[in-house]
Sequence to fold (238 residues):
Amino acid sequence: MAVALIEKRTEDGKTIRVTPGPILLLGAPGVGKGTQAKEIVAAWGIPQISTGDILRANVSGGTELGKKAKAIMDRGELVSDDLVNDMVADRLRQPDTAGGYILDGFPRTLGQAEWLDSCLAAQAGSLPVVAVSIKVGYTQLLRRITGRRTCPVCKSTYNIYLQPPKVDEKCDLDGTPLTRRSDDTEEVFEERMRTYESLTAPVVEHYRALGRFEEVDGEQPVDAVAAAVMAAVLRLRG
Ligand code: AP5
Fold:
């Protein structure tokens, strides 16, 4: 499989090609990690690895993992590190991750971060991770979460307040009725935020301390956030 390369302008105006390597998108529920990961996939052609999406696929597929995860996700708590690390390890063995990938929703405990760091350190030739944390205020996050709707067929994401579909509750691309995630209620969002503050905020500090870390303002239009995230990755891959 060909390794993805992205173009980067150097300070003296030359264009060079760099390997994206592992990219972490960090941030609270609803900051736009999934939205931004899809923008990077479209621009750079590297895969998005969303632990939330993999877990939801297991829930809807009725697998053993899905059965264990469903109640935990519906409460807004975290699935155990062992289960999630194994899931990520399996995905990282796929050949499409050779040149780089975007981790969306992982790591979200210090245990997961330490596991990932040692896993990459043991991998010959692996680039270090670069981490971009997206910041959005609480009130905006609540609107994003409670307004989110998804097309169950093509997986396009909408927001009834901020990015509504052209026809009420129908997908613009295929007309399918949109669905709402079972954890996107205000009550579960509040629990997800508590979980984020206690278990995931320390992961952001972990990567800030390691360097190769930038923070981006997520309260801008999607394309402006995408430009800021990609510019940050290119700077960090200097
Ligand atoms: P997960 O699916 O990862 O949920 P999350 O982190 O809470 O993040 P979200 O998917 O809710 O939000 P997002 O940041 O991707 O925002 P999005 O782009 O969709 O995890 C769900 C659950 O799975 C967890 O609670 C846990 O139980 C389990 N889990 C997952 N990973 C785990 C792990 N590593 N360990 C243990 N358990 C794990 O955008 C949100 C909305 O905003 C959309 O409607 C979108 O259209 C809109 N929007 C986005 N950007 C903008 C913008 N710039 N302007 C206006 N609207 C915007």
User: Anything to note?
Assistant: The chain has eight helices and nine strands.
